[in-house]
Design goal:
- Strand 3 and strand 4 (42-48) form a beta hairpin.
- The radius of gyration is 25 Å and the shape is elongated.
- The strands form four sheets. It has a four-stranded antiparallel sheet, with no helix packed on it.
- It folds into two domains: 11-62, no CATH class; 71-138.
- It contains no helices and eleven strands.
- By secondary structure, the protein is mostly beta strands.
């Protein structure tokens, strides 16, 4: 088995970060790894297919990732003003995605049943974009 120059076995050093990746499982020499290569974008592993005595497979690992989303709430509080009993008021909650990947909001949980939203989840906010979700208060 070839090992990386830093002798980390099953880890790869890239731009100062150490990445672990799952290698095909098996016992002893049953996976029989044959090669590990980095092409500048992907880490490639050639190993024996589990349960086969001769078939090999090429495994591709993307270590670059696709960025990281980061939420920044623009609206930190909402003032609905005077809402009459038996009626409701709606206001928008705004957020920025200041990250480098799409931000996906799958759900919202409110501390009181008086607050709801009618938005269809997931809400996707692209990098460097602003999103909004309507929040309704029922009195």
């Amino acid at each position: 088995m070839r090992r990386c120059r830093k002798n980390l076995c099953c880890k790869c050093c890239y731009r100062g970060y150490t990445f672990s990746f799952p290698v095909p499982t098996g016992t002893g020499t049953s996976i029989s790894p044959r090669g590990l290569a980095w092409d500048g974008k992907y880490l490639w592993l050639i190993a024996r297919v589990i349960g086969s005595s001769s078939q090999r497979a090429l495994y591709k690992f993307d270590l670059g990732g696709s960025g990281t989303p980061q939420i920044q709430l623009v609206t930190t509080q909402i003032d609905y003003g005077n809402v009459q009993i038996g009626s409701n008021g709606t206001s928008q909650m705004f957020m920025n995605n200041v990250g480098t990947a799409p931000l996906q909001i799958d759900s919202m949980k409110f501390s009181s049943g008086a607050f709801t939203t009618n938005v269809t989840f997931p809400v996707i906010v692209q990098p460097n974009q602003m999103g909004q979700i309507p929040i309704t208060f029922t009195c």
